[in-house]
Amino acid sequence: MKDEFSSSPHTNAVQYNIVKDVWGYRSQLIGERAQELLGARCIKLTAISIGANHKVYRVAMDDGRTVIGRVLSPSFTEYGAGVYPEDTMEAEIATMRYVKTHSTIPVPEVYYHDKDEKGEVGGEWMLLEDIRGTNLYMTWPEMSIDQRQKVGLAVVDVWAQLMRLRFGAIGSINSPGNDAETFYVGPMTFMPTNVGKTTGPPPRSKCGPFSCARDWLLALARLDMRFLNEAPLTEEEKSRMIPVISDTEAAPLPYLDNSEASDPSPQSTNVLFHVDLGVHNIMVDSDDPTIITGIIDWEGACVVPLWSILPRFSNPLRAPYITKPDELGALEELRSLMERTLSDAVPEWAKLITECREARMLRIRAEMSTAEPRNVRMPEGIF
Question: What's the pTM?
Fold first, then answer.
Protein backbone atom coordinates (compact mmCIF):
# COMPACT_ATOMS: atom_id res chain seq x y z
CA MET A 1 0.00 0.00 0.00
CA LYS A 2 1.25 3.45 -0.89
CA ASP A 3 2.11 5.87 1.95
CA GLU A 4 -0.42 8.64 2.36
CA PHE A 5 0.86 11.93 3.72
CA SER A 6 -0.76 15.30 4.30
CA SER A 7 0.34 18.39 6.18
CA SER A 8 -1.66 19.57 9.17
CA PRO A 9 -2.10 23.37 9.23
CA HIS A 10 -2.74 23.28 12.98
CA THR A 11 0.15 21.17 14.28
CA ASN A 12 2.70 21.42 11.46
CA ALA A 13 2.92 17.67 11.94
CA VAL A 14 2.82 14.97 9.32
CA GLN A 15 -0.30 12.82 9.19
CA TYR A 16 -0.32 9.43 7.53
CA ASN A 17 -2.29 6.20 7.51
CA ILE A 18 -0.02 3.18 7.16
CA VAL A 19 3.47 1.88 6.42
CA LYS A 20 6.60 3.96 7.09
CA ASP A 21 6.65 7.47 8.57
CA VAL A 22 8.94 10.39 7.83
CA TRP A 23 11.26 9.54 10.75
CA GLY A 24 12.07 6.17 9.21
CA TYR A 25 10.16 4.06 11.74
CA ARG A 26 7.59 1.39 11.03
CA SER A 27 4.79 2.74 13.16
CA GLN A 28 2.07 0.48 11.81
CA LEU A 29 2.57 -1.84 14.80
CA ILE A 30 1.71 1.03 17.17
CA GLY A 31 -1.67 1.43 15.51
CA GLU A 32 -2.25 -2.32 15.50
CA ARG A 33 -1.59 -2.63 19.22
CA ALA A 34 -3.92 0.30 19.90
CA GLN A 35 -6.66 -1.48 17.95
CA GLU A 36 -6.21 -4.66 20.01
CA LEU A 37 -6.25 -2.80 23.31
CA LEU A 38 -9.12 -0.40 22.60
CA GLY A 39 -11.30 -2.62 20.42
CA ALA A 40 -11.64 0.10 17.79
CA ARG A 41 -10.07 0.73 14.39
CA CYS A 42 -7.05 2.99 14.06
CA ILE A 43 -7.86 5.59 11.43
CA LYS A 44 -4.84 7.85 11.67
CA LEU A 45 -1.37 8.19 13.18
CA THR A 46 0.02 11.67 13.63
CA ALA A 47 3.69 12.37 14.24
CA ILE A 48 3.40 15.12 16.85
CA SER A 49 6.84 15.47 18.39
CA ILE A 50 10.46 14.59 17.83
CA GLY A 51 12.96 15.29 20.56
CA ALA A 52 16.52 14.33 21.37
CA ASN A 53 15.38 11.03 22.86
CA HIS A 54 11.79 10.28 21.82
CA LYS A 55 9.42 10.19 18.89
CA VAL A 56 5.80 10.76 19.86
CA TYR A 57 2.70 9.79 17.89
CA ARG A 58 -0.99 10.44 18.42
CA VAL A 59 -3.12 7.42 17.52
CA ALA A 60 -6.72 8.25 16.53
CA MET A 61 -9.43 5.59 16.65
CA ASP A 62 -12.71 5.50 14.75
CA ASP A 63 -14.72 5.86 17.98
CA GLY A 64 -13.14 9.24 18.75
CA ARG A 65 -10.60 8.06 21.32
CA THR A 66 -6.89 8.86 21.03
CA VAL A 67 -3.78 7.46 22.69
CA ILE A 68 -0.10 8.36 22.57
CA GLY A 69 2.66 6.16 21.18
CA ARG A 70 6.06 7.14 22.61
CA VAL A 71 9.20 5.59 21.14
CA LEU A 72 12.51 5.72 23.02
CA SER A 73 14.90 6.43 20.18
CA PRO A 74 17.71 8.91 20.88
CA SER A 75 18.71 10.94 17.85
CA PHE A 76 22.46 11.17 18.39
CA THR A 77 23.56 7.58 19.01
CA GLU A 78 25.84 7.70 15.97
CA TYR A 79 27.92 10.30 17.82
CA GLY A 80 28.14 8.23 20.99
CA ALA A 81 25.32 10.07 22.78
CA GLY A 82 21.80 8.88 23.60
CA VAL A 83 22.92 5.80 25.54
CA TYR A 84 20.58 4.73 28.35
CA PRO A 85 20.22 1.90 30.90
CA GLU A 86 18.17 -0.98 29.55
CA ASP A 87 15.51 -0.68 32.25
CA THR A 88 14.99 3.08 31.85
CA MET A 89 11.52 2.83 30.31
CA GLU A 90 10.43 0.02 32.63
CA ALA A 91 11.36 2.16 35.63
CA GLU A 92 9.55 5.16 34.15
CA ILE A 93 6.38 3.12 33.67
CA ALA A 94 6.59 1.69 37.19
CA THR A 95 7.07 5.20 38.58
CA MET A 96 4.01 6.57 36.78
CA ARG A 97 1.90 3.67 37.97
CA TYR A 98 3.15 4.07 41.54
CA VAL A 99 2.40 7.81 41.55
CA LYS A 100 -1.03 7.22 40.04
CA THR A 101 -1.81 4.66 42.76
CA HIS A 102 -0.36 6.54 45.74
CA SER A 103 -1.19 10.19 45.04
CA THR A 104 -3.63 12.48 43.29
CA ILE A 105 -0.96 13.80 40.91
CA PRO A 106 -2.38 13.50 37.38
CA VAL A 107 -0.10 11.20 35.37
CA PRO A 108 -0.76 9.34 32.11
CA GLU A 109 -2.08 5.81 32.35
CA VAL A 110 0.20 3.31 30.58
CA TYR A 111 -1.68 0.79 28.44
CA TYR A 112 1.10 -1.18 26.79
CA HIS A 113 4.90 -1.55 26.77
CA ASP A 114 7.10 -3.21 24.16
CA LYS A 115 10.90 -3.50 24.28
CA ASP A 116 10.93 -3.87 20.48
CA GLU A 117 13.39 -6.75 20.67
CA LYS A 118 12.75 -7.60 16.99
CA GLY A 119 13.27 -4.01 15.85
CA GLU A 120 9.76 -3.78 14.41
CA VAL A 121 9.18 -0.15 15.43
CA GLY A 122 12.71 1.17 15.77
CA GLY A 123 12.96 1.56 19.53
CA GLU A 124 11.43 0.52 22.84
CA TRP A 125 7.99 2.06 23.08
CA MET A 126 4.78 2.40 25.05
CA LEU A 127 1.15 3.29 24.53
CA LEU A 128 -0.20 5.70 27.09
CA GLU A 129 -3.06 8.03 27.82
CA ASP A 130 -3.39 11.14 25.70
CA ILE A 131 -3.40 13.89 28.34
CA ARG A 132 -5.78 16.63 27.27
CA GLY A 133 -4.69 20.22 27.56
CA THR A 134 -1.85 22.52 26.59
CA ASN A 135 1.79 22.55 27.57
CA LEU A 136 2.43 25.16 30.28
CA TYR A 137 5.48 26.25 28.31
CA MET A 138 3.11 27.60 25.65
CA THR A 139 0.54 29.23 27.92
CA TRP A 140 2.79 30.87 30.54
CA PRO A 141 3.77 34.02 28.58
CA GLU A 142 0.12 35.01 28.13
CA MET A 143 -1.04 34.21 31.67
CA SER A 144 -1.92 36.92 34.17
CA ILE A 145 -0.08 37.26 37.48
CA ASP A 146 -3.10 35.79 39.27
CA GLN A 147 -3.19 32.79 36.93
CA ARG A 148 0.54 32.23 37.34
CA GLN A 149 0.14 32.28 41.10
CA LYS A 150 -2.62 29.68 41.00
CA VAL A 151 -0.74 27.30 38.72
CA GLY A 152 2.45 27.88 40.73
CA LEU A 153 0.67 26.73 43.88
CA ALA A 154 -0.65 23.73 41.96
CA VAL A 155 2.95 22.85 41.09
CA VAL A 156 3.86 23.18 44.78
CA ASP A 157 1.17 20.61 45.55
CA VAL A 158 2.83 18.20 43.12
CA TRP A 159 6.18 18.63 44.88
CA ALA A 160 4.54 18.21 48.29
CA GLN A 161 2.83 14.97 47.28
CA LEU A 162 6.09 13.57 45.91
CA MET A 163 7.82 14.44 49.19
CA ARG A 164 5.18 12.50 51.11
CA LEU A 165 5.93 9.28 49.22
CA ARG A 166 8.46 7.52 51.45
CA PHE A 167 10.85 4.66 50.62
CA GLY A 168 13.39 2.51 52.46
CA ALA A 169 16.19 2.73 49.89
CA ILE A 170 17.76 5.07 47.31
CA GLY A 171 17.38 4.16 43.64
CA SER A 172 14.55 4.03 41.08
CA ILE A 173 11.08 2.54 41.33
CA ASN A 174 10.52 -0.63 39.34
CA SER A 175 8.10 -3.54 39.24
CA PRO A 176 8.60 -7.23 38.44
CA GLY A 177 7.47 -8.00 34.91
CA ASN A 178 5.68 -4.65 34.58
CA ASP A 179 3.32 -5.71 37.37
CA ALA A 180 0.96 -2.78 37.87
CA GLU A 181 0.48 -3.50 41.57
CA THR A 182 3.88 -4.61 42.91
CA PHE A 183 6.72 -2.11 43.28
CA TYR A 184 10.23 -2.02 44.68
CA VAL A 185 13.21 0.34 44.71
CA GLY A 186 15.81 -1.06 42.33
CA PRO A 187 19.00 0.27 40.73
CA MET A 188 18.96 3.93 39.77
CA THR A 189 18.12 4.66 36.15
CA PHE A 190 18.93 7.74 34.12
CA MET A 191 17.82 9.78 31.15
CA PRO A 192 19.79 9.07 27.96
CA THR A 193 23.16 10.79 28.08
CA ASN A 194 23.85 13.83 25.92
CA VAL A 195 27.62 13.32 26.15
CA GLY A 196 29.43 12.18 23.02
CA LYS A 197 31.79 9.17 22.77
CA THR A 198 29.69 7.22 25.28
CA THR A 199 30.25 3.48 25.00
CA GLY A 200 27.69 2.17 27.45
CA PRO A 201 25.36 2.86 30.40
CA PRO A 202 26.58 2.83 33.99
CA PRO A 203 27.20 -0.70 35.31
CA ARG A 204 23.86 -1.76 36.77
CA SER A 205 25.54 -3.54 39.69
CA LYS A 206 26.98 -0.21 40.88
CA CYS A 207 23.75 1.81 40.66
CA GLY A 208 22.13 0.60 43.87
CA PRO A 209 19.70 0.39 45.41
CA PHE A 210 21.53 2.04 48.29
CA SER A 211 20.51 1.38 51.87
CA CYS A 212 21.99 4.65 53.14
CA ALA A 213 22.90 8.08 51.81
CA ARG A 214 26.65 7.71 52.38
CA ASP A 215 26.82 4.71 50.02
CA TRP A 216 24.91 6.73 47.41
CA LEU A 217 27.23 9.74 47.76
CA LEU A 218 30.30 7.52 47.52
CA ALA A 219 28.95 5.91 44.35
CA LEU A 220 28.55 9.39 42.88
CA ALA A 221 32.02 10.50 43.95
CA ARG A 222 33.69 7.35 42.61
CA LEU A 223 31.85 7.73 39.29
CA ASP A 224 30.26 4.31 39.75
CA MET A 225 27.10 5.65 38.08
CA ARG A 226 28.94 7.42 35.29
CA PHE A 227 28.13 6.46 31.71
CA LEU A 228 31.02 4.53 30.19
CA ASN A 229 33.11 6.69 27.90
CA GLU A 230 36.02 6.02 25.57
CA ALA A 231 37.84 9.06 26.96
CA PRO A 232 39.72 7.99 30.14
CA LEU A 233 40.03 10.21 33.19
CA THR A 234 43.11 12.38 33.32
CA GLU A 235 45.53 12.10 36.22
CA GLU A 236 44.39 15.53 37.39
CA GLU A 237 40.74 14.41 37.44
CA LYS A 238 41.69 11.31 39.40
CA SER A 239 43.57 13.40 41.95
CA ARG A 240 40.55 15.70 42.43
CA MET A 241 38.37 12.72 43.31
CA ILE A 242 40.55 11.62 46.24
CA PRO A 243 39.65 14.39 48.75
CA VAL A 244 35.96 14.25 47.78
CA ILE A 245 35.84 10.51 48.48
CA SER A 246 37.78 10.81 51.75
CA ASP A 247 35.62 13.72 52.96
CA THR A 248 32.46 11.77 52.13
CA GLU A 249 33.72 8.71 54.00
CA ALA A 250 34.70 10.77 57.06
CA ALA A 251 31.80 13.25 57.25
CA PRO A 252 30.53 13.20 60.87
CA LEU A 253 26.87 13.08 59.88
CA PRO A 254 25.29 9.99 61.47
CA TYR A 255 22.13 10.17 59.37
CA LEU A 256 24.18 9.45 56.24
CA ASP A 257 24.59 5.89 57.51
CA ASN A 258 20.99 5.32 58.59
CA SER A 259 18.23 3.75 56.56
CA GLU A 260 14.66 4.88 57.01
CA ALA A 261 13.87 1.44 58.38
CA SER A 262 16.28 1.95 61.31
CA ASP A 263 15.85 5.69 61.70
CA PRO A 264 12.44 7.25 60.95
CA SER A 265 13.75 10.81 61.42
CA PRO A 266 13.44 13.27 58.51
CA GLN A 267 17.21 13.16 57.89
CA SER A 268 16.91 9.49 56.87
CA THR A 269 13.74 9.87 54.81
CA ASN A 270 13.86 8.99 51.10
CA VAL A 271 11.31 10.46 48.68
CA LEU A 272 10.48 10.45 44.98
CA PHE A 273 12.15 13.07 42.79
CA HIS A 274 10.98 14.07 39.28
CA VAL A 275 14.27 15.16 37.71
CA ASP A 276 12.75 17.45 35.07
CA LEU A 277 9.63 19.05 36.53
CA GLY A 278 9.66 22.18 34.37
CA VAL A 279 7.00 23.96 32.36
CA HIS A 280 7.65 21.73 29.35
CA ASN A 281 6.52 18.67 31.32
CA ILE A 282 3.38 20.19 32.83
CA MET A 283 0.08 20.02 30.95
CA VAL A 284 -2.70 22.45 31.84
CA ASP A 285 -6.34 22.80 30.92
CA SER A 286 -6.78 24.59 27.59
CA ASP A 287 -9.64 26.72 28.94
CA ASP A 288 -8.22 27.28 32.43
CA PRO A 289 -4.40 27.14 32.50
CA THR A 290 -4.37 27.26 36.31
CA ILE A 291 -5.52 23.61 36.37
CA ILE A 292 -2.84 20.96 35.89
CA THR A 293 -4.14 18.08 33.76
CA GLY A 294 -0.98 16.02 33.68
CA ILE A 295 2.66 15.69 34.72
CA ILE A 296 4.57 13.94 31.96
CA ASP A 297 8.05 12.57 31.19
CA TRP A 298 9.00 10.63 34.32
CA GLU A 299 12.13 9.24 32.68
CA GLY A 300 15.05 9.20 35.12
CA ALA A 301 12.83 9.79 38.18
CA CYS A 302 14.54 8.49 41.29
CA VAL A 303 14.25 8.03 45.04
CA VAL A 304 16.70 10.23 46.97
CA PRO A 305 17.03 11.63 50.51
CA LEU A 306 14.54 14.36 51.38
CA TRP A 307 17.36 16.65 52.48
CA SER A 308 18.89 16.57 49.00
CA ILE A 309 15.95 18.08 47.15
CA LEU A 310 15.86 21.73 46.09
CA PRO A 311 12.72 22.01 43.94
CA ARG A 312 13.12 23.83 40.67
CA PHE A 313 10.40 25.57 38.71
CA SER A 314 12.93 28.04 37.43
CA ASN A 315 12.12 28.33 33.73
CA PRO A 316 9.01 30.51 33.98
CA LEU A 317 10.37 32.52 36.89
CA ARG A 318 13.48 33.60 35.02
CA ALA A 319 14.56 34.72 31.56
CA PRO A 320 13.71 34.17 28.74
CA TYR A 321 10.13 33.92 29.99
CA ILE A 322 10.30 37.31 31.67
CA THR A 323 9.62 39.77 28.89
CA LYS A 324 8.36 42.78 30.83
CA PRO A 325 10.41 44.58 33.49
CA ASP A 326 7.33 45.14 35.64
CA GLU A 327 6.90 41.35 35.97
CA LEU A 328 10.12 40.90 37.95
CA GLY A 329 8.69 41.93 41.31
CA ALA A 330 5.55 39.84 40.93
CA LEU A 331 7.55 36.76 39.89
CA GLU A 332 9.88 37.16 42.86
CA GLU A 333 6.82 37.30 45.11
CA LEU A 334 5.51 34.15 43.43
CA ARG A 335 8.78 32.31 44.02
CA SER A 336 8.69 33.32 47.68
CA LEU A 337 5.04 32.27 48.00
CA MET A 338 5.77 28.88 46.48
CA GLU A 339 8.64 28.28 48.90
CA ARG A 340 6.56 29.29 51.93
CA THR A 341 3.65 27.12 50.82
CA LEU A 342 5.86 24.07 50.31
CA SER A 343 7.50 24.66 53.70
CA ASP A 344 4.07 24.70 55.36
CA ALA A 345 2.98 21.58 53.46
CA VAL A 346 6.15 19.59 54.24
CA PRO A 347 7.63 21.14 57.41
CA GLU A 348 10.26 18.41 57.83
CA TRP A 349 11.69 19.32 54.42
CA ALA A 350 11.80 23.01 55.35
CA LYS A 351 13.74 22.15 58.49
CA LEU A 352 16.26 20.03 56.58
CA ILE A 353 17.04 22.85 54.14
CA THR A 354 19.00 24.46 56.99
CA GLU A 355 20.03 21.44 59.05
CA CYS A 356 21.50 19.40 56.19
CA ARG A 357 23.35 22.05 54.23
CA GLU A 358 26.64 20.22 54.80
CA ALA A 359 25.18 17.00 53.38
CA ARG A 360 23.84 18.83 50.32
CA MET A 361 27.29 20.29 49.72
CA LEU A 362 28.72 16.79 49.89
CA ARG A 363 26.26 15.76 47.21
CA ILE A 364 27.30 18.64 44.93
CA ARG A 365 30.96 17.77 45.43
CA ALA A 366 30.26 14.08 44.78
CA GLU A 367 28.42 14.85 41.55
CA MET A 368 31.35 17.03 40.44
CA SER A 369 34.17 15.03 41.97
CA THR A 370 36.49 15.50 38.96
CA ALA A 371 35.85 19.25 38.60
CA GLU A 372 38.12 22.02 39.77
CA PRO A 373 37.12 22.82 43.38
CA ARG A 374 36.65 26.51 42.57
CA ASN A 375 33.89 25.55 40.12
CA VAL A 376 31.91 23.57 42.71
CA ARG A 377 29.25 25.77 44.27
CA MET A 378 26.09 25.17 46.22
CA PRO A 379 23.00 26.19 44.22
CA GLU A 380 20.98 28.73 46.13
CA GLY A 381 17.28 29.43 46.25
CA ILE A 382 14.15 27.38 45.77
CA PHE A 383 12.14 27.40 42.55
Answer: 0.89
